[in-house]
Amino acid sequence: MRTRVLLPLVVLALLLAGCSGDDGGGTDGRVTLRFQSLAWQEESVEANQELVKEWNAAHPDVKVEYVQGSWDSVHDQLLTSFEGGEAPDIIHDASDDLADFAYGGYLADLTDLLPERLKSDIPQRGWDTTTFGDGIYGVPFLQEPRVLIANAKWLKESGVRIPTPQRPWSWPEFRRITEQLSGDGKYGVAWPLKEPVSATLNLSLSAGGQLFHRGADGKVTVRFQKADEVVPRTVHDQANTDHSASPTTLGSGGSDTLPGFFGGKYAMVPLGFSYRQQIVQQAPKGFQWQVLPAPAGTDGLTQGVSPQTLSIAEDSPHQKEAARFIDFLLRPRNMVRLALGDWMLPTGTQALQDPALHTAKDGWATGTALAAHLRSAPAQSVRGYPEWKDKVATPALQEYYSGAIDLGELRERLERDGNLVLARYQR
Predict the structure, then answer these.
(1) What pLDDT is attached to residue 382?
(2) CA dihedral 172, 173, 176, 181 (to 10 degrees)
(3) Is the distance from CB of 240 to CB of 261 less than 8 angstroms?
(4) Quick one: pLDDT at residue 21?
(5) Separation between Cα atoms, residue 282 and residue 254, nearest integer Å
């Protein structure tokens, strides 16, 4: 009898001992949080690691461990860690990657975890990017508009009107100017559209494009309407009709266009704002460049954006402590440090007022002037978007931009094939 009683007790004790090490709490009562960061640029990694050190020095009861992640594999890596019960407590990601995780129950609802200071500092248009259903599943903290990086000397010598955030080019004017700048084997613009979907959809907001339409029943359908045609038609006609856009860069990434840009082959390249760091590092001595706003449509300079985000795992046993760390990380002065390290814009109203973000040098002032025009990307809350993007939209847009299909077939494929994909996620 004694042995039969003791065995279950021993087993129970072993089980409890095994579980006690998995909740991030040590025997001394100190909490340990794992923070997975996707920072990759040297300045950004340094800023993140410095902030973790500062937190740990000031909070001996809550230790944060810095874990280096990668943008290249973050979605699959997170899915595996969620399903295996090994997700980091604090998760760095992008807002357009959160929908399936939020609806799947993997992320904590931050509505009641975040302090009022942080919630009020970030405008509602920022929170819209991380709101799914009735919950908030990430804190948007870094954002970047798409801009035109231009050869300043080339534009000045051509005599074209230089656009500003106050007087941007329209899409038709942009097309005329790129044609004017082209000739003799040179092009007015190089579109790097290896991944064409987000660039096309986000810029289309300026023309009133939406593409995804949510009905009263909450279900989303794809409708490619007149406003959605403006941006893709511009790119297509520049590449195939005007020959003002380099056809060889349509399948390239942004970095791939820089050697040709520095070599005087392209007058402009549409890129994310953070590409300025690569330009500063790689541009030949004496090369003159400037940042211009992207063209404006009927809705002005409006652009879709998918900010970088910080979330908390639903399975984290220390959600309140994780929220405290996020609040520390995103204090205005710290948010500015992160933004400067990543060459991006902070979402916080106070951080955006920092003088360092309003200098003419490296185009900071132009980018900051665009912050108020950034809105939630059209695909932000669409379940099934990753599959629609990879299997339907990317190949269809690539074929259209190369001239292999016409606008009618593009519309048919985006709508017909796209709605079949989305329907599987909305049953």
Answers:
(1) 87
(2) -140
(3) no
(4) 41
(5) 13
How many angstroms separate the CA atoms of 307 and 94, rounded?
Answer: 6
Contact between 274 and 196 under an 8 Å Cβ cutoff? The reply is no
Closest CA to 366 of 284, 425, 290, 269: 290
Residue among 177, 175, 230 at smallest CA distance from 206:
230
Of 94-103, 182-191, 256-265, 322-331, give the lowest mean pLDDT range.
Answer: 94-103
Looking at the chain, the whole-number percentage of residues with pLDDT higher than 70 is: 93
CA-wise closest residue to 415 among 212, 151, 242, 122? 212
* Residue 224: count of CB within 10 angstroms of its CB: 19
Q: Using CA atoms, how far apart are residues 111 and 90, in angstroms rounded to an integer? A: 16
Measured in whole angstroms, how far is the alpha carbon of residue 14 from the centre of its chain?
A: 45
Residues 250-283: tens digit of each pLDDT: 999 999 999 999 999 999 999 999 999 999 999 9
Distances (CA, A) of 54 to 28, 109, 149: 21, 27, 36
> Do residues 53 and 63 lie in contact, with contact meaning Cβ atoms separated by under 8 Å?
no
Structure tokens at 251: 């399948």
Averaged pLDDT, 312-323: 97
Round the average pLDDT of the chain to a whole number and report it: 92
Sheet of 187-189, strand order: 187-189, 266-272, 146-151, 289-293
Q: How much is the pLDDT for 28?
A: 63
- Given its phi and psi angles, is residue 384 left (phi above 0), alpha (psi -120 to 50 degrees) or beta? left
Give the chain's length: 427
Sign of the alpha-carbon dihedral angle for 97, 102, 108, 110: positive
Q: At what angle do helices 42-58 and 319-329 cross, to 10 degrees?
A: 120
